[in-house]
Amino acid sequence: MTESRVSSPAVAKQLRHIAVEDDTTVQALLEEALDLLFAKKGKRYVRDLD
Fold first, then answer.
1. What range defines the domain where residue 27 resides?
2. Radius of gyration over alpha carbons of the chain, in Å?
3. N or C: which end of the chain has fewer CB within 10 A?
4. 39 assigned to some structural domain
5. Within-domain flag for 4
6. pLDDT (tens digit, 0 to 9) for every residue of the chain, 50 residues total?
7. What Cα–Cα distance (Å) separates residue 28 from each residue in 2, 24, 43?
8. pLDDT at position 50
C-alpha cells in the first residue's frame, strides 16, 4: 500500500493514539478501515489486491 497522509493534524494525532493503544501501526489501522469499507461495498480485501 502506498503512503497515506491525513490532512487534519487532529485526525492524525487520534490515529496515532489508537495505534499506540492497540499496539499496531497507523498503516494497519488504515488498512483495517479500508477492509471494512470494501466489505460493506462487496469488494475484495486489501490483502487480496496485492
1. 9-49
2. 12
3. C
4. yes
5. no
6. 555 677 799 999 999 999 999 999 999 999 999 999 999 999 999 989 87
7. 12, 7, 18
8. 78
Residues in the chain: 50
Question: Between 26-40 and 9-21, two packed helices, what is the crossing angle to 10 degrees?
Answer: 100
Q: In this structure, how many other beta carbons lie within 10 angstroms of the beta carbon of residue 15?
A: 19
Residue 17 is assigned to a structural domain of this protein: yes
Q: Are 35 and 45 spatial neighbours (Cβ–Cβ below 8 Å)?
A: yes
36 in a domain, yes or no? Answer: yes
Q: Contact 4/27 with Cβ under 8 angstroms? A: yes
Cβ(16)–Cβ(6) below 8 Å? no
Contacts of 18 (CB under 8 A, 6+ apart): 29
